[in-house]
Amino acid sequence: MDLKKADLIIFSFLSILFEFLSSYFFNFLNSGFILSFSLLIFLIMALRWGIMGIVPFLLSALPLIAMEKSMELWQSILYYLVANVFAVIPIGCYTLFCKGKSRNVMIQSPVYLILFSLATFLSLAIGKWIACIIINQDVASIGGYFISMIFTYILTILVLYALSRLKNSIVADMDSYRNDGEEV
């Protein structure tokens, strides 16, 4: 099994597990808040493998869909799964417009790293907002999303930045290693 498949499997499992635990604590133990690591895992995977990083993020929606009680199934799928596709827009644009450039450029610059993660967060928020408009015609819902996710976003940025500063970090463009002739 090559590294990309192994990464996708491992990070998909972690993403699903963390979303299940987050949903469980919120829905069944009434924790009062949600702390999601799926965005962090997506950002790591997007920086490692580009657009393929969306796979664990999409799979992380499965426990949320299964455990959602306040929406119909089609609404849960739209909100948790389809809206998550919007998160791929920034890495897709980078791939399209910066063809041949390593994603390590974003990883090595704190400014680019923050801008990339902010663009991803905003893209995701737009996807969730569109889903809310379709589900219940709630145009003002984007504010609630920002408020509910700001703690998760700040934590994601801090952890992503800390990981990117490590010498042998998991935050690295793995395609560039393959292109440099190193065996991955």
Describe the structure.
The structure is a single chain. By secondary structure, this protein is an all-alpha fold. It has a single domain, classed as Arp2/3 complex 21 kDa subunit ARPC3 (Orthogonal Bundle), CATH 1.10.1760.20. The protein has 10 helices and no strands. α1 runs parallel beside α4. The longest helix is centred in the last third of the chain and has 27 residues. It is globular and about 45 Å long.
Architecture, according to CATH? Orthogonal Bundle
Residue share in β-strands: under 5%
What class, by secondary structure content?
A: mainly alpha
Distance, first to last CA:
11 Å
Helix content: over 70%
Number of helices: 10
CATH topology description:
Arp2/3 complex 21 kDa subunit ARPC3
Q: What string, H for helix and E for strand, traces the elements in order?
A: HHHHHHHHHH
Rg, alpha carbons: 17 Å
- Major beta sheet, specifics? none
* Number of domain units: 1
Mean pLDDT across residues: 87
Number of strands: 0
* pLDDT < 50 stretches: none
Q: CATH class, please?
A: Mainly Alpha
Molecular shape? globular
Please summarize what this structure is:
The chain has one domain (3-179): Orthogonal Bundle (Arp2/3 complex 21 kDa subunit ARPC3). Helices cover 72% and strands 0% of the residues.
